[in-house]
């Protein structure tokens, strides 16, 4: 048993030893790995340090610096140091790529900093948000000051009855614009920081005292009450504490090679340092630091920034702030470095006041302690205010005097440094202050003190000492209050945001439990809502909705009519193109038929003409016929498939049996019949097709020598077909096809008028719709002007007492705004009327008591016995006592020399006084003009004054009271007369103001009407331009038919002429062409030469359709025709050498030469009578090799060249018309874009402007106090009832 137990123990011990050894091996392995990793990391760090050292000691490119910054931020996580180096490169960027690199690194550092702060759970304020709120609040206060200025000017100008209506309306517009900006800033700040109490209080007072917006002030008061209750309940976080005035906050921007500057300092810093906030803003941070520390402060900051761990959060138990007087105030500070996306590298310092000094042997309150800073040798550099005030005199500055602490304290050098740090007792020697304090205050030469001394080593070997001491028997020396009680932040949480009840006016409370008071307030709130409605800036007014609907309808109608016009134009243009194609096909058909006739005639001649004379072989002619056959068939099919109107001639000729054909019978009889065009062409092509594949030998056997003779018999079917082809091809089919081509052209050109009329009707309709909608839209905009005019008319009937009251309220607000307590946002000094809006807890249940006002001008008037003296008293009272904030001072008072006892001393003084009274108070004409309207009264008064004065001087025995009574009667009579004239002139002044108002709004309505009509004129201009462009397109399309006819008939005219010439020789008689029975020589001279002359005109003075191919046409008429027509070099050479290079002289020369040859042969033929023209003579003309050479010239070269010219012109016409249509579409697209942009502008900008006008009207009516607005409404209702 024991052995087994021993074995178990031994086994367990072995297992444990094995595990321990295994763990030891693993630990050693991990330790070795860790050691290796540390060595590798140390090596990498060393390499990077060496690399950075080389960077700093060499002038590398900026990209290398960017690499260093990236490594610092990404690998070493030294964001502050990286950003510091990056900011030093801000002005060294020399390319766009460097700027992109800079932006990337800046964003990278910012994001890394945010991530590190979140991972370390570091609580920092949002610096960007704080700066944003502060900047907006400063802008808010600036706008309030500016708006108050404008409102005061508005009411002061309105108080003058001689004001200019346009000027006061412009001031009102500026007020509204500023108010809307204020509202936007207010909402933006509260959205960013909902617990910003200061801006709410400022908004309450501004709305109540300046703008008379009682409802808005009540809403803000409720918001403020809820906010105060929330702040009492909720525990404030660090961010909230820093925003109060109990803790100081300084945000400073740290820049390379620049002094650190303050970008934000709160009111606590301002009160502590004695500087105003605007004096601190954007100034160097060193202005708040003692000079001895300021000398090395930038180095301290840089070291602080480069120490990433220290820069995260550093708390200093004691620092010293230098006041504006040069004294120091001890505080404790918490410093954080942070990175702003906009401002870069920032320092944020939170400054707390020090309440007590606690050392081992030293316990004392700050207000009972004295602070000194000395250099290393003990000479005082700066001191606290209480030291300078108590020992150096109230106006003495320690920096001006060399005092050593060894001279102040007894045996200070005997104490050890540790003892001095913990606090020691010694005696203070007053002999150092003998030159500053009176001898009576220095009864004791020594006093017991407790002193501590701390030594601080600054950068660059600078050493300073801090001396703190307190006097044990402070009552023995005269003390002047020097505490900094306002900096004591150890108050309770309830006191932090509590309102000082002793400072609040009795009228300003947080509500009453009295139900009667609540009911009264509710009733008054209901009256407020009835009189002044709350303006909902998010909701679009109904009038603006109507305007928006009208704008949308207007633009939709314009767009619809524009698209209708575009559709008509495109459809018309497409139809013109279709007509153009039809005309082209009809003209091309005529040309191909002419070529087919000549080719077939040459084929027939091969049976009886020697091969040496023939220009083409039988097989070549068949191939040419095959080409023409397919083209004729294609064009005929297109023409047969075209659609025609039932009433048109084309429909008759194409659908009815209008084509007359002839056929010869076997016995030689000729029969005629009518058929349709389609059937006739099919017959013609069918008969042609029989000979296209026929063998030459078989052709000779079946046809033989074939000539059209008057008497023919025993005709085979093949010879009958030949007769059909030659006879009908030269007469009936040719004439019919020419007729169809002319009809196609006439019908295509006739559509121009129809298309123009259609587009004109659409354009006129669009113009009419535009004008009608414009005339409908104009009155819609007039409604807004009428509303604004009605509001302005309200201003004209506001009482003077109300104006005086409003100016007094503004004066009170300005005093509050400009007071030094304004930034603390205490409600001290605010009028009861302003404070009372915070009196209730329920929304819209506030009391609106009437404010206390000075006696009105009517009361002053009734207080005096003499009417004129009352006028003078009122005038003097208004000049001396009227409410003015001091922002606008435009009143004068130059009536001091006029005394009450000599009012009637002379006429000039009286006139001057009354003139000044009425000019200032009534805005009327001078008294001299009014006296002209009452000559009788004035003359009698002038006569009575000397007599009265003489009577007073001579009659010493009479009672003076009788004369005084007489004088008073005359004065009363004069005053009543003047009052009547003043009333008349006042009515006249009101009429003048009404005329000004009417003229002003008439001008505004005219301006809006002109804008709308101007916009409509642009639309109408587009419609007219579109019409003229379309008309131009239609006109040029119609002209193009003639151009195509001329260019397409040049080649067929040659082939027809040679074919008719051969038939003339064959039949030995003059041939007749066309329905007009035209001879060949007339045809050549009139038609063919006419085509050539017109073409020559086109080349010399090309139409707009040919302008882009003029040079090509000139080259085609020159020696380059062959090169431009043919591509094969052999064909080009043959073309250039044919007939001794006739084409090298130009195409037109070759054509003229051909016509000249035809004319010469015709003349030779016609020179002999038919009876003497034997067969030999006819054969000499028909079998002439020159004739066949010309025919080869025509078929091989001239027809292809003219076809090339025809295609060039067709393409040019098509491109030109397409270009014109594209031009129109571009203009239309620009117009549609213009409409869309105008619609967007109208819906956004114009609607916003009109919405602003509506809100402006509502705001400018709300600016009138509620009581006065209610009185005006009642007055207008009574006036309306009286009129009815």
UniProtKB/TrEMBL annotation:
Keyword Lipoprotein: no
Top-rank lineage group of the source organism: Eukaryota
Transmembrane regions listed in the UniProt entry: 550-571, 759-784, 1010-1029, 1224-1247
Keyword terms of this UniProt record: Membrane, Transmembrane, Transmembrane helix
NCBIfam families: sensory_box
Official protein name in the record: Pas domain s-box family protein
Gene behind the chain: Contig18705.g19870
